[in-house]
Design brief:
By secondary structure, this protein is α+β, with helices and mostly antiparallel strands. It has 13 helices and 20 strands. The chain folds into 3 domains: 240 residues, FAD/NAD(P)-binding domain; 110 residues; 50 residues, no CATH class. Strand 14 and strand 15 form a beta hairpin. The C terminus is likely disordered.
Length: 447
């Protein structure tokens, strides 16, 4: 079968490799020419490309199932596998920059027989008698029996062939910066597989160790709090990370040096969109994948994991149903409703409650606890861990937390709250940022 995949991100590259292994002829279309600079290159339309990533356990599973050589190459590139808390023998994922992950995955695709990477702008899906017949790329035709839209959250070329997405603003914005530790410098503190997660009063502070002594630090804030917009100014960002002890331990100039600008991230939405078009029907031969189906608050690190979960499910239906592409799309859509949309629902509620608490509200004991509070409660009562751990590893859906929600509610009703690490609260941080940023004009929100 001839397959055209639009989007050379993780979902498109992974699916293309797996389909080529099955004997299909695959063309992957993307505007980017690849990463000529292995340390610092851009990805058009991928705002989160240089922001920190942690690759969760489903990514390891997906690589092992279809592309084990990619995982071996990632290890050679410095990727660091990390065990689950309390169960270090169970893999929770691996630490690596996305620029490195995509470079290794793309190199594998470029070298694989049956895969062709084509640089160009995908303009529209070509239709013949109501079914997809290829893709128009820079006015040239790329024929295909199956078209995969893996163009990501900002893809537009199939907009008229889909229903509007279910979408909510995350209410969260963030800034991050990459660093490199000096030779012999100690690592900073960690408290979770991704690295360090510090729940400050009114914002988050995070540190993500990556491969080969690189790391990212990130400060997430309510997008409505414009007092912290000045964090995009390097002097203000430096002052903020110095004032937050957990981040200062990683970024002290005696230990590390910046290797990137300050990178803003905003306009974040949780979105979900199924396979049917505006009329409720499937376009035969056209299937949507990855961020074209689901996006969530990037801080949760679900994006690549849910994309590769989707790719594996779609491969199973293509293996089973063969040329019945409408049947594949319908089965895949039903699977996404069961296995992928619950993560959208989880994050919509979770993010709304985080923003509410950032604004000064206490835990709402009159409503179901959001997943982040249930997870945090396991620190107060380790008996919650058998339910929390599979959720955190994405081996169990969000609904699996229902079994311990009542016990978590009792913990919060007793007055327990997650401990707050040392550092300024949001008002003190805002004062520091305002004082440091001064009257300098703010950089653009999107890098």
């Amino acid at each position: 079968m001839q397959v055209a995949i639009v989007g050379a991100g993780p979902a498109g590259l992974y699916l293309g490799l797996a389909l080529a292994r099955r004997g299909h002829r695959v063309q992957i279309v993307d505007r980017d020419r690849g990463q000529t600079d292995p340390g610092w290159s851009s990805r058009a339309g991928v705002m989160q490309f240089h922001h920190p990533h942690f690759f969760r356990q489903p990514v390891l599973d997906a690589l092992a199932a279809e592309t084990p050589k990619v995982w071996n190459a990632l290890r050679r590139a410095g990727a660091v596998p990390v065990g689950a808390p309390e169960r270090p023998q169970v893999p929770a994922g691996f630490r690596c920059r996305r620029v490195t992950f995509e470079r290794v995955l793309r190199a594998a695709a470029e070298q694989h027989p049956g895969v062709t990477l084509r640089v160009g702008h995908a303009e529209r899906v070509e239709l013949s008698r109501g079914r997809a017949a290829g893709v128009s790329v820079d006015a040239a035709s790329v024929p295909a029996e199956l078209v995969i839209d893996a163009s990501g959250r900002s893809g537009r070329f199939t907009r008229g062939l889909r229903r509007p997405a279910e979408s909510t603003d995350c209410g969260i914005a963030y800034v991050s910066r990459q660093y490199r530790l000096h030779r012999g410098a100690p690592d900073g503190p960690t408290n979770a597989p991704p690295g360090l997660i510090a729940w400050q009063r009114g914002y988050f502070a995070l540190a993500f160790p990556h491969e080969r002594r690189t790391l990212s630090v990130l400060i997430a804030r309510p997008s409505s709090d414009q007092r912290l917009a000045g964090l995009r100014i390097p002097e203000a960002f430096d002052a903020a990370v110095t004032a937050i002890p957990a981040l200062a331990a990683w970024t002290d100039p005696a230990h590390a040096e910046p290797i990137s600008p300050v990178l803003p991230g905003g306009r974040l939405h949780n979105t979900y969109r199924g396979q049917p078009g505006p009329d409720g029907r499937i376009t035969d031969g056209l299937i949507f994948l990855g961020d074209a189906v689901l996006t969530t608050n990037p801080i949760g690190g679900l994006g690549v994991a849910t994309s590769l979960l989707q790719a594996r499910a779609l491969l199973g239906y293509l293996d089973e149903l063969g040329g019945d592409l409408t049947g594949c799309a319908l089965a895949f859509d039903a699977w996404c409703e069961r296995a992928i949309k619950p993560w959208f629902t989880d994050y919509v509620y979770r993010d709304s409650q985080i923003v509410r608490r950032w604004a000064g509200a206490d835990v709402d004991l009159h409503r179901r606890l959001p997943s982040d509070l249930i997870v945090a409660a396991a620190h107060a009562d380790p008996t919650l861990a058998p339910a929390v751990a599979p959720y955190m590893l994405m081996q169990a859906p969000p609904a699996s937390l229902d079994t311990v929600e009542r016990r978590a509610r009792e913990i919060y009703a007793s007055g327990w709250r997650p401990p707050v690490p040392p550092g300024p609260d949001v008002d003190e941080l805002a004062e520091l940022v305002t004082r440091t940023a001064g009257a300098r004009p703010e950089p653009s929100l999107v890098p």
